[in-house]
Amino acid sequence: MKYYPVNLDIQNRPCLVVGGGRVGTRKVKTLLDCMARVTVVSLESTDDLNRLAETGRIQIQRRSYASSDLDGMFLVIGATDNEALNQRIHSDAEKRNMLCNIADRPAACNFILPAIVQRGDLILAISTSGKSPAFAKSLRKKLEREFGDEYEAFLNLMGAIRERLLKTSHEPEVHKPLFEKLIAGNLIGLIESGKIDRINQLLEQVLGEGFDYQTLLDDADKDRK
Predict the structure, then answer these.
(1) I want to staple 220 with a disulfide (CB 3.0 to 4.6 A). Which of 78, 156, 167, 210 is the partner?
(2) At a CB cut-off of 8 Å and minimum separation 6, what does 10 contact?
(3) What would the pLDDT profile of 134-186 be if each residue is shown by its tens digit?
(4) How many domains is the chain built from?
(5) Which helix (H) or strand (E) is 115 found in, with range?
């Protein structure tokens, strides 16, 4: 199987998870992290899912799956240990030309979920095209050690700089060499070591006066809120 790599925007899109066990709970939390609108169909559900339902973050339909549950959904994830039900979900989704993932059953999916390392807006996806999830997990652990929290701060800073530049007379095409100079100046390493004075010196050297590390991060934080 040859997969087409893509990052989906599922913010405010209706997504269905069939199955309320441990696997289903994990899938629900990932969808919520991406701000999807999640409905769970399951006769039973974990305490975590119950709490999410009580706070209104998800909806739970406490009944068996019906084909009509797919109506109006953007994607469906099957997270059950019932092979016949998983195949039915897959078949129903195919008839509707909708996105379908059946946990741990690549042959019943039209998209698969990679192992991921996330540091804020930095997302590293690892896929073995379903051939070895264990190896993907091993690579994920390796990358988690290599890419620390400094990468989240770095991207927040770069995003804030980009927004600041766009509000000035700078044309977008002139931004690239500025960002390349910041990267070449070991900005990530300076953030990791907490050398704020050196960071501000680099910012002034590349961008000019008025670019302060903490102020830029505060601006980025306000934008996220």
Answers:
(1) 156
(2) 31, 34, 35, 36, 74, 75
(3) 999 999 999 999 999 999 999 999 999 998 888 876 676 778 899 999 999 99
(4) 3
(5) strand 115-119
